[in-house]
Amino acid sequence: MTDAFDPISLEIHWSRLISIADEAATGLLRTAFSTIVRESNDFATVLMDRNGDSVSENTGGIASFSCILPKTTKHFLERFPAETWRPGDCVITNDPWLATGHLPDFTAVTPIFHRAALVGFAGSIAHSPDVGGSLWSADCRELFEEGIRIPPLRLYREGTRNGDLVDVLLSNVRVPRQVMGDLEAQVVANQVCAQGVAEFLSDTGLPDLQGLSRALSTRTDAAMRRAIAALPDGTWRSTLEADGFDEAITRIECEVTIRGDTMHIDYAGTSPQVDRGINCVMNYTHAYSVYPVKCALDPFTPRNEGSYQAVTVSAPDGSILNPRFPAPCSARQLTGHLLAGAIYKALAPVMPDRIIGECGGAPTMRALFSGHDREGDRFSQVLFASGGMGASPHRDGLPTTAFPTNVGAGSIEAYESVAPLVVWKKQLLPDSGGAGQFRGGLGQDVEIEVRAPDAVRLSLLSDRRDHPAQGVLGGGAGASAVIELADGTRPHPKSRTTVAAGARLRMHYAGGGGYGDPKDRDPAALAEDIRNGYVTPEGAARDYGVKA
User: Fold this and answer.
1) Per-residue pLDDT averaged across 176-190, rounded?
2) Confidence at residue 1, expressed as pLDDT on a 0 to 100 scale
3) Helical (H) or strand (E) element with 305
């Protein structure tokens, strides 16, 4: 029963369960091999009850992953019924349609036992440094080109590792030591979570997590429903366009309907799926639709299974937001990250005080370098960096900050230490934030030199070249993304290419959209922007009509 816990006890229990998920995240970060996890935050850890419903999640990982992981666990339970799980088991998959939408993300789930009874599951997701195939890229024609796909299989059975599965996986990747190191780190994270739950149940005297899970879910569901019910009933629409792939521009049609304490988001009319890797599977579409709503309407209540029950999402079968297998989807974030902007644009008339302009870092821009270093060892390294965040009704957009993903940039020193690459420049880009009463966040200018002995492969995943981040309620657009080599040539923004040793790649990360009419900007704030170099005198005259 949900009334079995008084409010104080419930808050104490909830805080402890969140701390257990955070301890699992710490275990993952401290044992992972790749900088993708250790430095760039591309992971999540989640505690679930025995039904696979989320109870708590770590505070620093990718929030959308935490929304997806319970769905994947329920798929695992369909294949491996609850009574077949044993202590020491761990099941993994990277199937895009069952998990996070592309092959580089591995999901690992471990059962939690207390007094010989199954009481829950510990889950983790981490972006692997390699899955074979085409590298992390956007230009494949079908899923099978994008790498090795692991169906739900036991990596561990009662503490014994599945050697055959490991052999198959490591025989298909370029950096097997890093891949296996990260996968084992996920197992460690799950074990830390399981141990924490066992201690929690022993300390509290609770037999399992079920009653507490129901109580927490009921409260988060009620919080979201109250927030939705405070908005007027009705239907609002928006259209958003992005670069897509070559001539196939991505068009997202978004319709948001509010009825009482429920919200439905429908993407009917959105572009059909394409034969390139920017398709976004439904799990990812759902996650990147409900999470921005959560941020806008109920940002302070911790997230769990109840957080998203009042919001439903639909997209046409065979669309770019709900593609049919085996559509390529390795770069699904180039489409999925756009959804927050489409939803906020639709809801701007009814909640202008809770939305932000489009983000220059949505979608994220990634550059993956792969080759051999001077010792002949293979490397595969992704540069994680971000454009500017969209402006809000209360303040300027944050510079070089990702949203709706919260992946980090990581340390440049760590990045350079594991690959023959030198980052010569990484600085804010003046005039890149969209003009407005509140200015969009600045993008950045990054320059990288290849120091490998031979040419390397470069895979680019980018957007915002032809369709910059738009402002809202009169705000201006942010600056566009630009990618070019030192000789002025511009590689395809969503394809693989070869870069010569000694070459330098320069990337301008897009700025965020502004909020409100630029004429309403505080003159003191604009003067401060000019003093700080965020806005040039020429930009002030062009975008604000002010001579500096």
Assistant:
1) 97
2) 43
3) none
Distance CA 496, CA 125 (A): 26
Does the pLDDT of residue 331 top 70, yes or no? yes
Closest alpha carbon to 494 in 262, 174, 223, 278 = 278
Measured CA distances, 413 to 100, 383, 421 (Å): 29, 12, 10
Model confidence at 3, in pLDDT bands (50, 70, 90)?
A: low
Q: In sequence order, what are the beta bridge partners of 154?
A: 91
Among all chains, which residue has been given the structure tokens 């069952």? 98
DSSP SS3 for 104: coil
Q: What is the DSSP string of 354-409?
A: S--PPPTTSS-EEEEEEEE-TTS-EEEEEEEE--PPPP-SSSPPPTT---SS----
* Cα 351 → chain centroid: 25
Helix (H, G, I), strand (E, B) or coil at 92: strand
Residue 252 phi, psi dihedral angles, 5° rounding: -110, 120
Say how far apart CA 73 and CA 53 lie, in whole Å.
8
Rounded CA separation 310/225 (Å): 6
Residue 317 in tokens: 């079968």
The token duo for 326 is 């085996």
* Mean pLDDT to the nearest integer, 341-366: 97
Residue 477 tokens, joined: 């657009």
Compute the average pLDDT of residues 9-23.
96
H runs (alpha helix) in 265-350: 282-297, 333-336, 339-347
Four-point Cα dihedral 225, 226, 230, 233, nearest 10: 20
Q: Which residues pair with 251 in a beta bridge?
A: 241
**Integer Cα distance of 185 and 42 in angstroms:** 13
Close Cβ partners of 153 (under 8 Å, ≥ 6 residues apart)? 91, 92, 93, 162, 165
Task: Say yes or no to pLDDT of 2 above 70.
Answer: no
Residue 206 CB neighbour total at 10 angstroms: 17
Provide the pLDDT confidence category of residue 61 given band limits of 50, 70 and 90. confident
C-alpha 68/C-alpha 254 separation (Å) is 21
pLDDT reported for residue 409:
84
- Strand, coil or helix: 473: coil
Overall size of the chain counted in residues: 548
| Helix orientation angle between 210-229 and 282-297, rounded to the nearest 10 degrees | 70
